[in-house]
């Protein structure tokens, strides 16, 4: 493995999934110039959902953040597919995070931090991004979290 970002990922004890299949009729990413628009990825591993919503009272924040991190790993898989290397990322511009939750749940942004923290750990200041994090009544496959992204490529 010669990609420095994938080496950082391994140092964090993480790896990319072997696949990230689409659940419907859409592209996993679309490139326009040096911008890469990534479709939302749920907390699944190689097409198998791993964490389910909605968030319940007394939930485990660490586990919920790991679910958001899994979304980020799926996004990274698609970045590598689009760019050929994770090191071709110039900047993570924006993340959109969605958390399946009941009405009046206010901690969705803390859960989406799991994805944000991974991008910052991998890319430093280039991983810092604008972000929206909202709670919704349901997500595909009854997933707990979904995250999408806009990335600038070098």
Automatic annotation (TrEMBL):
Question: Which organism's genome codes for this protein?
Answer: Jiella pelagia
Top-level taxon in the UniProt lineage: Bacteria
Question: Could you tell me which residue ranges the Endoribonuclease L-PSP/chorismate mutase-like domain spans?
Answer: 7-152
Which CDD domains has this protein been placed in?
YjgF_YER057c_UK114_like_1
Q: State the name under which the record lists this protein.
A: RidA family protein
